[in-house]
Design brief:
By secondary structure, the protein is of the alpha+beta class. The chain has a single domain (4-273), classed as Clavaminate synthase-like (Double-stranded beta-helix, 4-Layer Sandwich), CATH 3.60.130.10. Helix content is 21%, strand content 25%. It has a 7-stranded mixed beta sheet, with helices on one face. The chain has a 4-stranded antiparallel beta sheet with strand order 11-7-8-16.
Amino acid sequence: MPIELRPLSYALGAEVRGLDLREPCRDADWQAVHAAFLAHGVLLFRGQRITREQHIAFSRRFGTLDRHESLPLDRDATHPELLMVTNDPKPDGSPSNSRYTGQMWHSDMSFTLAPALGSLLRGLHVPPVGGDTLFTNMVLAYDSLSATMKGLIEGLHGIHHSERKNSGLSAQWEAENRRLNPPVAQPLVRVHPETGRKALYIGEKVKCLEGMTPEESQPLIDFLVRHATRPHFVYRHQWQADDLLIWDNRCTAHLALGDYDPRHRRHLERTTVLGTASGHVADLEVVQ
């Protein structure tokens, strides 16, 4: 059965039909999937009742997988390639570290020196309503800026932090997170290494622009984030159990909504494909 693509929105995203990921992906099918990935930025595979091993094996078609050493408390103990996004309590009954994961506009692992190429998130248990994920097309966002604004931001770097919104996490987690993930300065405009297109690279984890004070930085950061997340750049994904959602972090940003009843289970598992080197550790001792 040939692969079919169904657009998910005007701005980005396509559903891939006709592929059963329980079976090894044939080279011809993989080429079609990869072309769709580059063209649409977000791919949806519905009804994929795959094992963890099958999830990891398919993810490796995209590249080398992150073992999530920068987030050791969030990864699975037996499958370090899998990052848990869950509201399941920990074995001692304390709240999950990752229950608020993603509730800021961001691109995965932007606070590291090898930001993610792609992410493959599988929905195992989803609430009956809510808990959606928003995606935005950062190429369209960049293209729609004025020539003057493009020239202004071309050489600027944003300082990305690894914090989480509403974290409420333990002091141990916070201290270890700061040690493993010092702030990293990334260019505001990145060139996609495969398509050659320019995209905005900013989100709510950017707190300052390198070489500027926070007061000078914030109006420009606020404008760019607000501009990049305008509704006509955005696709809203409503999760179903056994969805596998794949996105290109080099040209999209996303936000997980916390608009669901926390009494309902929300458990997703993510693989992360390592990207190319980018950015540098920010010198926070320098007056910005």
